[in-house]
Input
Amino acid sequence: MEAAPGPEAPVTNPYAAAQRQFDRAADHLGLERGLRDILRAPQREVSVRFPVRLDDGSTRVFEGYRVQHNMSRGPAKGGVRFHPATDLDEVRALAMWMTWKCALVGVPFGGAKGGVACDPGSLSRGELEALTRRFTTELQGVIGPDVDIPAPDVGTNAQVMAWMMDTLSMHRGMLLPAVVTGKPLAVGGSEGRSDATGQGILDTVEFAAARIGMRLEGARVAVQGFGNVGEAAARLLDARGARIIAVTDVRGGARNADGMDPVLLREHLLATGSVAGAAGTAPISNEELLALDCDILVLAALEGQVTSRNAGRVRARIMAEGANGPTTPDADPILREHGVVVIPDILCNAGGVAVSYFEWVQNREAFPWSAEEVNARLGRMMTTAATEVWDRAERDGIDMRLAAHAIAVERVARATLVRGLYP
Ligand code: NAD
Output
């Protein structure tokens, strides 16, 4: 007798995953062949190899990338990642997701991403600054306020953005604050930017919870990843009355069914380098966290965490994709079958690029907005996008990921068509 077909093998390459998601949307929309070919792969890819002098006097060569997936709707926009596993395919996928994300929330940008294969934790501050400045110099021909605007991502932060801005400004002989977003407030950063991705996660989780009749007060939350995104999401969900019952990072995890204070977790992380071992908590592994009995699972680490191998064990009712590409395409049908409401990445974590856009506008106008104004505009943008995705999913009888991609691909396709081909 033939064995029953098991779950599909995980799609471990993020670019293959991003293209698979695009294909689903293109099929759903009945997109014609020429448009598919334009949108299915990046418009421009830059690879650089550059030397950096280390503190011990030696020289090390690093590899870096900037990929601009699509610029039909505006200048390219996307983060810069410093991580040992960063490679061209990862950056391609992340650039493609940025295109869809901007289109979905109505930000007039295209999609890009950049990265350097390095371990920022093993570099001194001086080495990190030298690496950042040299990488920026290598990219000076392809980034700029009207062309491509980088932002922080995994392994980078506001300080790295300040160095990027300063480097490009020195080269051009004028201050160019709008060349990067996610800068420190002292050099043109926006109120609300550092919490923006977490705030957008909260907004979309609130939206989904309301639609399925779940109360956030007392809801049990597990968070994978406790960096820029995971820490803010945990703190804001906790402030909204939810209970943070488990958190993991790359080194380990902490759990307490009664709830943990994210502020204390962060203090422990700053003192020790991990949330693991925080006072009053028990250890938990990543695999255990993904399978934990909870109401809301926030993914805020890296790609490819929920796959066909572990998707069947997810017990959360809402899975919020704070990270980009945390779920492989083969896991989606399993999650659907189990009734997990997945808030897809291009919607869930779009708060970051939304406030990046606000920062760029403030820089261009040389007129800063108040925190209240930033958050009010962000809330409206996230709620509008979430409503559109939810309604499209219901109307077409599809899941939220396909609905989000369909809306976004449709918008980019329309812009491409209306602009026409040159020459
Ligand atoms: P970060 O470097 O600040 O934090 C990443 C966190 O994930 C750290 O706590 C790290 O320890 C943890 N981590 C790494 N590998 C892990 C693993 N295997 N298991 C468990 N934890 C692991 O990065 P970030 O800026 O918070 O980005 C996280 C995710 O969110 C990425 O997918 C990124 O692309 C996405 N994102 C970031 C922003 C932003 O504004 N920074 C915006 C949108 C999306």
In short: The domain at 43-187 is CATH 3.40.50.10860 (Rossmann fold).
